[in-house]
Amino acid sequence: MRKGVILLAALAVAVLAGGLWITRAVPLPESAVPESAGDAAAGEQVFVAAGCASCHHAPEAEGDAKRVLAGGQRFPSDFGTFVAPNVSPHPEAGIGTWSLAQFASAVQRGVSPEGAHYYPAFPYTAYARMTAQDVADLWAFWQTLPPDATPSAAHEVGFPFNIRRSLGVWKTLYLREDWVMEEVPDATVDRGRYLVEALAHCGECHTPRDALGGLERDAWLGGAPNPNGRGTIPDLRPGALDWSATDIAYYLESGFTPDFDSAGGHMVAVIENFAQLPAEDRAAVAAYLKALPGGE
């Protein structure tokens, strides 16, 4: 009996240790953080393509105020409502005291400077594919943005999803750096892949999710229910989206479809961002979408 109790206790300790190991927050290794300072001008283009302001500006912000990253926008989901935090360079309310390494770990691993997991409403599963130089450039541009003292609001997430430690298991399943489109035919599609799968994180909205909230990569960009419960987000695969590459590029610049309809919802902000990028980037996204398989 005594030996059995000892064995069970040892097993319990081993299970606990394994659970703590699997659920730990793992920051980006130092070797993956660039040593040189980034370029702020290049970082502005990364900032726009990644849609940082679209989520983190104040709810009613317009014009230049959209670059004041005070947070406060609400994003409902099946797991609760997530509230965008203040990520301005303010030293107390924002992230003004962070280092480049801490910023890179947050953006690409979803790990806070305190060693806690961020919820994947922050699309670090897409940003994990960013180049180290783009992260450094983005951080350099971040330093030029105005600080704001607005306190961050808490997420409205109930049990058991409020146990952040469990996100370590979620990351084991879904945090990957490999590309969905494994091979690309040319440099244009390669650039489109980088924009769609990494910076612009298009799959976060346009790909269905499983019961745990992970993207179903077998149905990549195949459309999904709208998280707010109203309607669906369209399928972008060639068999469902019969627009020409020119049509797609023009839509990303103007918001107008070939049928003279216009974009709505969060896509308005996406187009606002893409309209600021070079025409070559919009053409690259179009080429990528036309190169996708499936959707018939």
From TrEMBL:
It comes from the Bacteria. This is Diacylglycerol kinase. It comes from Thalassococcus profundi. PANTHER family: ALCOHOL DEHYDROGENASE CYTOCHROME C SUBUNIT, BLL4482 PROTEIN-RELATED. It holds the Pfam family Cytochrom_C. Gene3D superfamilies: Cytochrome c-like domain. The keyword Nucleotide-binding does not apply. GO terms for molecular function: electron transfer activity; heme binding; kinase activity; metal ion binding.
